[in-house]
Amino acid sequence: MRKRISLFDIANVLLLGIFACCMLFPFIHMAAVSISSAEYVTSNRISFWPKGIHLDAYKSVLKDNRILLGYKNTLIYVTVGTTLSLIFTTLGAYALSRKVLVFGRTLMLLIVFTMLFSGGLIPNYLVVRSYGLLDTRWAIILPSLVSSYFLIIMRTFFQGIPSELEESGKIDGLSDLGNLWRIVLPLSKPVMMTIGLFYAVQVWSNFFSALIYIRDASLYPLQVTIRNIVLIGQVSDTTVTTAMGDKPIVLESLKYAVILVGTLPILLIYPFIQKHFVQGATLGSVKG
Predict the structure, then answer these.
(1) What is the tens place of the pLDDT at every residue in 1-26?
(2) Is the RNA-binding keyword given for this protein (predicted)?
(3) pTM recorded for the entire structure
(4) Is residue 184 a contact partner of residue 66, using CB atoms and an 8 Å limit?
C-alpha cells in the first residue's frame, strides 16, 4: 500500500531544503571564489558558479610550509587528544555507571557542577602555567581532555546495558576491566564513534587554546595558521597579495582556499560514521 504524502510532509521537506541551501551556500560560494579568475573575483561577479577556473590559490596554499606544519600539528593534536579523551571518558563513565561505586552520586553532582560554573580564563591559564605546560603540545590536549557532557552521555549509555551480561562475565572470572573490554565496549560502538567524532571536531576546531598557551609558531595548529593568514585581509587594504609566495594571488581567493583546506578533511570523515551518529547521540540520552 502506497503511503499517503501529507501537507505536513511537503512543508517539512521544503523547510529543511531551504535550511540546507542556506547552510551550503557559504561553502559553495567560497569554493567558487577560490577557483575563479582574478577579474571576476575583484569585480564581485561570483555567486554559485566559478568563472575562469584556475587553481593558483590552492597551489600556493598546499606549497606553503605553514599550512603543512599546521596540518602536522593538528593531526597530532587530534590523534593523541581524541584517543586519550576517549580512554579517560570511557573509564570515568564506566566507573560512574556502576551502582556499587562509593560516593558515585556525589561525584556526579560535582561533575554537573563544573558544567554550570567554571574558574574562568585567568585561573585556567595559571593552572596550565603552574604545571609547566605553556609552549608544549600538552597545553592543547590536557585542559580539554574530558568533557562533562560527553562523560554523562556515555555513562547513561553504559547504564542501559543489561547488568546480566556483566554478571555472567564475572561468573566466568572476568574483572571489572575485563567486563569493560570484552562485553561493554563491543556493545558501545555507536556511542564511542559519536563521542569520538565530537572530540575530534572539538580538537580540530580549537584555536583559542593555542592563542592563549602557545607562543612557539612551530606548535601552532592549523586553525591558528588559517586565522593568521585570513587576518591579512583585515589589516591590509590590498586586493592582491603575495603572502603565500612570489606569485600574486587575489586575497579573497586565497582566504577562501585556506578556509576550505582547513575545513574539508573533518567534513569528509562524517559520512563514514554517519550510520552510528544518530544512534549513538540518542541512545545515551534515554535515561537521566
Answers:
(1) 566 778 888 899 999 999 988 888 88
(2) no
(3) 0.81
(4) no
Place of cell 569585480: 43
How much is the mean pLDDT over the chain?
83
Residues 6+ apart with CB under 8 A from 153: 191, 195, 281, 284, 285
Mean pLDDT of 239-248: 57
142, with CB counted inside 10 A (0-12, 13-18, 19+), is: middle
Domains, the chain, in order of start with CATH, read 1-54 (no CATH), 56-283 (1.10.3720.10)
DSSP 182: I
Please answer whether residues 56 and 251 qualify as being in contact, where contact means their C-beta atoms are separated by less than 8 angstroms. Answer: no
Contact assessment for residue 145 and residue 83, using Cβ atoms and an 8 Å cutoff? no
- Residue 68 has a CB neighbour count (10 Å cut-off) of 14
Q: pLDDT value at position 62?
A: 80
Contact 135, 214 (CB under 8 A): yes
* Cell numbers for 248: 600574486
How far apart, in whole angstroms, are the C-alpha atoms of residue 121 and residue 111?
Answer: 19
